[in-house]
Amino acid sequence: MIVVTGATGNVGRPLVRALVSAGEDVTAVARGNAARELPAGARWQRADLAEPETLRPALDGAAAVFLLTSADFLAGGDLDPVLKIARAAGVERVVLLSSLGVGTGRHPAELEDSVRRSGPAWTMLRPAGFHTNAFAWAGTVRAERMIAAPFGNVALPHVDPADIAEVAAAALRDAGHDGLTYELTGPAPVSPRQQAAAIGAALGEPVRFVELSRAQARAQLVRFQPAPIADSTLDILGSPIAAEQRVSPDVERITGHPPRAFADWAARNADVFR
C-alpha cells in the first residue's frame, strides 16, 4: 500500500490518480473530508502531519509514503514524530516533497535531514515554483483582466504539479530512485509578465500586468505564509541565483516526456480565469 499525504492538493490529487491508474493500493490522507474528491479505488483517511498520532491508522501496512508539508508546517513543524510512526508501521520508502530552495540554501534543510536519518529508503523531490501558484491571480483576472505581481520581468522555470506527481509516482513504486534527489522544473524560465500574456492568450483577450513593489507583495504573502517563508520566496522571485533559473533535465529523464510549459497549463485551466 502507498500512502499519499496532502492528497487533495495540486500535487497530491494527480499523484493519487496516477497511482490508482497504475493499479496501486492507495490511501489518500488529508486534513479535511476528501472522500468525494478521490478517484474510485482510493481509500480516504483524515489525518494531519501536525498531529502525528492521527497517521497511525493510515500508515498501518503501508510500504511507501509520500510526505507533503504545508507552509505553516515548514515554519516550525517536526517530521521526526511522523517518521517514527512510519518506521514502526513498517514503511520501507519515503518520498518527500521538498523545494529547490533547500538545494540553493534559501530554505532550511531540517525536513530533508529528518527523512535521511529516519531509516526507510528515501527520495527527495525539489521542485521550483508551481504553475498552479497562478491560481492566486484568478480573482483579478476574472474581475478586471489584470494580474498584479512583483518582479515582472524576472523569469524562473516554474513546474507543472502534474509533472511532480508523475515523478513522485515513479519514486514511490520503484527502488531505483532510492537515495536520489531530483530537481524539478519546467522547460524554460517564464516571468510574471509572460505568465500574464499566456493566460491572456488562453482566454483570447489581453490580461493587463501591474507590477507590485516588494513591500506590497510581502503584505499580501504574510496573510497566508509565515513571514520567513514569505521573505525567502520574495528573495527567490526578485533576485534568483543561477541555480534557481537553471532548467533541470530530471522531469524528462524520469517521466520520458518534456516538462509541461506554463502556456500549456494556462490553456488547460483557462476556465478558472474566465
Commentary on this structure:
This protein has 274 residues and is of the alpha/beta class. The protein has a domain at 2-130 and 160-186 and 241-259: 3-Layer(aba) Sandwich (Rossmann fold). It has 15 helices and nine strands. The protein has helices at 12-21, 56-59, 71-74, 80-88, 100-104, 110-116, 138-144, 161-173, 192-203, 214-221, 227-238, 242-245, 250-255, 262-268, 270-273; strands at 2-5, 26-30, 42-46, 64-67, 93-97, 121-127, 146-150, 180-184, 208-212. It has a seven-stranded parallel β-sheet, sandwiched between helices. A two-stranded parallel sheet has the order 7-9. Helix 9 (192-203) packs parallel to helix 14. The longest helix has 13 residues, at 161-173. The termini are far apart.
- Can you tell me the overall shape? globular
Which radius of gyration do the C-alpha atoms yield? 19 Å
Strand content: 15-25%
Do you know the CATH architecture of the domain at 2-130 and 160-186 and 241-259? 3-Layer(aba) Sandwich
The separation of the N and C termini measures 40 Å
| Count of individual helical segments | 15
Average predicted local confidence, pLDDT:
94
Q: Helix fraction? A: 40-55%
Low-confidence stretches: none
**Helix and strand pattern:** EHEEHEHHEHHEHEHEHEHHHHHH
Largest sheet, in brief, is: 7 strands, parallel
